[in-house]
Amino acid sequence: MKLPRISWRFFALAALVGGALFNEKVLSRNPDLERRLVGCWVGTAGSDSPFPGSVVFKFEADGTFKGRGVESLITDRKLSKAVRASGTWKVQRSKWTLKYTESNGTLLFPRPGAEWNFKVFDVTDDALDARGWGANGRSFSLDRINPNSVQCVGEAGVSA
Fold it and tell me: Which residues contact 99 (CB under 8 A, 6 or more apart)?
Protein backbone atom coordinates (compact mmCIF):
# COMPACT_ATOMS: atom_id res chain seq x y z
CA MET A 1 0.00 0.00 0.00
CA LYS A 2 1.35 3.33 -1.00
CA LEU A 3 0.95 6.14 1.54
CA PRO A 4 -0.38 9.44 0.29
CA ARG A 5 2.31 12.08 -0.08
CA ILE A 6 0.93 14.17 2.81
CA SER A 7 1.14 11.22 5.25
CA TRP A 8 4.82 10.65 4.44
CA ARG A 9 5.61 14.30 5.20
CA PHE A 10 3.63 14.18 8.42
CA PHE A 11 5.58 11.14 9.66
CA ALA A 12 8.91 12.74 8.72
CA LEU A 13 8.00 15.93 10.59
CA ALA A 14 6.81 13.94 13.62
CA ALA A 15 10.10 11.99 13.70
CA LEU A 16 12.11 15.20 13.47
CA VAL A 17 10.18 16.90 16.29
CA GLY A 18 10.29 13.74 18.41
CA GLY A 19 14.06 13.48 17.96
CA ALA A 20 14.56 17.11 18.95
CA LEU A 21 12.44 16.69 22.08
CA PHE A 22 14.28 13.48 23.00
CA ASN A 23 17.61 15.26 22.58
CA GLU A 24 16.49 18.21 24.72
CA LYS A 25 15.02 16.15 27.56
CA VAL A 26 17.21 13.05 27.68
CA LEU A 27 20.50 13.46 25.85
CA SER A 28 21.27 16.96 27.07
CA ARG A 29 21.63 15.96 30.72
CA ASN A 30 25.12 16.10 32.16
CA PRO A 31 25.14 14.04 35.39
CA ASP A 32 28.91 14.37 35.85
CA LEU A 33 28.72 18.18 35.84
CA GLU A 34 25.65 18.10 38.11
CA ARG A 35 27.54 15.96 40.62
CA ARG A 36 30.59 18.26 40.57
CA LEU A 37 28.48 21.40 41.15
CA VAL A 38 26.87 20.05 44.34
CA GLY A 39 28.42 21.56 47.45
CA CYS A 40 29.35 24.87 49.04
CA TRP A 41 31.02 27.62 47.06
CA VAL A 42 32.33 31.03 48.11
CA GLY A 43 33.27 34.02 46.00
CA THR A 44 34.15 37.67 46.40
CA ALA A 45 34.32 40.76 44.25
CA GLY A 46 37.27 42.75 45.56
CA SER A 47 37.55 46.46 46.26
CA ASP A 48 38.57 47.05 42.64
CA SER A 49 35.06 45.98 41.59
CA PRO A 50 32.32 48.60 41.22
CA PHE A 51 30.13 46.33 43.36
CA PRO A 52 32.35 44.76 46.03
CA GLY A 53 30.76 41.96 47.98
CA SER A 54 30.97 38.34 48.98
CA VAL A 55 28.66 35.40 48.49
CA VAL A 56 28.29 31.81 49.68
CA PHE A 57 26.19 29.36 47.66
CA LYS A 58 25.10 25.88 48.67
CA PHE A 59 23.94 23.72 45.76
CA GLU A 60 22.04 20.59 46.77
CA ALA A 61 21.81 17.32 44.79
CA ASP A 62 18.01 17.72 44.62
CA GLY A 63 18.40 20.76 42.34
CA THR A 64 17.84 23.48 44.95
CA PHE A 65 20.22 26.16 46.17
CA LYS A 66 20.57 28.80 48.84
CA GLY A 67 22.79 31.82 48.80
CA ARG A 68 23.85 34.44 51.31
CA GLY A 69 26.11 37.36 50.94
CA VAL A 70 26.99 40.96 51.60
CA GLU A 71 26.66 43.49 48.81
CA SER A 72 27.68 47.12 48.69
CA LEU A 73 28.17 49.92 46.20
CA ILE A 74 31.48 50.91 47.76
CA THR A 75 33.72 49.31 50.35
CA ASP A 76 32.22 51.42 53.16
CA ARG A 77 30.44 48.95 55.51
CA LYS A 78 27.77 51.58 56.27
CA LEU A 79 26.42 51.06 52.78
CA SER A 80 26.58 47.25 52.90
CA LYS A 81 23.55 45.01 52.98
CA ALA A 82 23.19 41.35 53.97
CA VAL A 83 21.29 39.48 51.27
CA ARG A 84 19.77 36.03 50.83
CA ALA A 85 18.41 34.07 47.92
CA SER A 86 17.14 30.60 47.12
CA GLY A 87 15.82 28.74 44.13
CA THR A 88 16.38 25.82 41.81
CA TRP A 89 19.20 24.91 39.47
CA LYS A 90 19.66 22.58 36.52
CA VAL A 91 22.30 21.63 33.97
CA GLN A 92 21.86 20.90 30.28
CA ARG A 93 25.17 20.01 28.66
CA SER A 94 27.43 22.87 29.86
CA LYS A 95 24.56 25.33 30.39
CA TRP A 96 23.86 25.95 34.07
CA THR A 97 20.58 27.68 34.95
CA LEU A 98 19.78 29.26 38.32
CA LYS A 99 16.12 30.16 38.81
CA TYR A 100 15.59 32.44 41.79
CA THR A 101 12.39 31.88 43.79
CA GLU A 102 13.34 34.16 46.70
CA SER A 103 15.77 37.06 46.81
CA ASN A 104 16.26 40.32 48.67
CA GLY A 105 19.44 41.25 46.79
CA THR A 106 19.97 44.11 44.42
CA LEU A 107 23.45 43.46 43.05
CA LEU A 108 24.49 39.90 43.98
CA PHE A 109 21.14 38.25 43.28
CA PRO A 110 18.35 39.04 40.81
CA ARG A 111 14.70 39.58 41.66
CA PRO A 112 12.52 36.54 42.46
CA GLY A 113 11.39 34.74 39.32
CA ALA A 114 14.51 35.68 37.35
CA GLU A 115 16.64 33.04 35.65
CA TRP A 116 20.39 33.39 35.18
CA ASN A 117 22.18 31.20 32.65
CA PHE A 118 25.86 30.37 32.71
CA LYS A 119 28.24 28.38 30.55
CA VAL A 120 30.40 26.25 32.82
CA PHE A 121 34.01 26.30 31.64
CA ASP A 122 35.63 24.34 34.43
CA VAL A 123 34.77 22.66 37.73
CA THR A 124 37.51 21.09 39.80
CA ASP A 125 37.64 19.82 43.36
CA ASP A 126 38.59 23.36 44.40
CA ALA A 127 37.20 25.89 41.92
CA LEU A 128 34.32 26.74 39.61
CA ASP A 129 34.56 28.95 36.53
CA ALA A 130 31.34 29.92 34.75
CA ARG A 131 30.29 32.89 32.64
CA GLY A 132 26.83 34.26 32.10
CA TRP A 133 25.27 35.62 28.95
CA GLY A 134 22.38 37.88 28.02
CA ALA A 135 21.16 40.36 30.61
CA ASN A 136 23.16 38.49 33.25
CA GLY A 137 26.60 38.69 31.66
CA ARG A 138 28.26 37.89 35.00
CA SER A 139 31.15 35.61 35.70
CA PHE A 140 31.30 33.12 38.54
CA SER A 141 34.76 32.35 39.87
CA LEU A 142 34.02 30.50 43.07
CA ASP A 143 36.09 28.40 45.45
CA ARG A 144 34.76 25.22 47.02
CA ILE A 145 34.54 25.18 50.82
CA ASN A 146 33.87 22.38 53.25
CA PRO A 147 30.07 21.84 53.42
CA ASN A 148 30.37 21.32 57.19
CA SER A 149 32.30 24.55 57.76
CA VAL A 150 30.86 27.44 59.74
CA GLN A 151 31.11 29.55 56.62
CA CYS A 152 28.69 27.20 54.84
CA VAL A 153 26.33 25.98 57.55
CA GLY A 154 26.90 28.31 60.46
CA GLU A 155 25.28 31.64 61.23
CA ALA A 156 27.27 33.30 58.47
CA GLY A 157 26.58 30.43 56.07
CA VAL A 158 23.62 29.57 53.90
CA SER A 159 21.91 26.87 55.94
CA ALA A 160 21.18 28.94 59.02
Answer: 87, 88, 89, 113, 114, 115
